[in-house]
Amino acid sequence: MGRALLALGLRWLVRLWIATLRCRRAGPTFEGPAVVAFFHGDQLPLLRIRPAPPVFAPVSLSRDGELQRRVLAGFGIESVRGSSSRGGSRAARGLLRALRAGAMVLVAVDGPRGPRGGVKPGVAFLARVAGVPVYPVGVGVGSGRRLRRAWDRFLLPCPFTRTTLVVGAPLSWRPTESDTAFVERLTEALAEVTARARAGREGGDD
Predict the structure, then answer these.
(1) What is the number of other CB atoms lying within 10 angstroms of the CB of residue 57?
(2) 103-115 residue pLDDT tens
(3) Strand 34-38, strand 134-141: pairing
(4) What is the spatial distance between Cα 6 and Cα 59, in angstroms, rounded to a whole number?
(5) Domain residue limits, the chain
């Protein structure tokens, strides 16, 4: 009961927090099924541009993961439990089922333990096996704070700050390339959209 109340409180806090953000979005509209790729720590602003349902996201099997699952459910995001460090094959199967059913999947591509900014091969596996595109997304804020003691440097935008979200052109896995080559392309694309988002953080408002 206590964790349910905590999840409810966090859900409303997050909802109110992101509602204050003056958000500008640039780039293509999401078309599913597809993977939306971003870096750990940038989750909060991204809730402003989540795709139309059905939407799924991998969530760890830990107690914190259960709390996250409850919070995400309040935003219409369904959870697939497991991560590459625990329950990885289960999570991969769940995400593939979701993609094959036409859903969008949100993936922090440098998880679950970092290093932050290092794209892991799991996203290439999803793109290759499910045959879906991957949208790279970058985030920039006018003012905010990153939690430096957390490995993912979780971003807390200041309320009412300007926020820029840049969606890059979708990347598809090429039959002639390796997973490593796809990861390199996605890494470059994420670096580009992140730089654009940070450069445009003082741009127009939503």
Answers:
(1) 22
(2) 999 999 987 676 7
(3) parallel
(4) 18
(5) 2-199
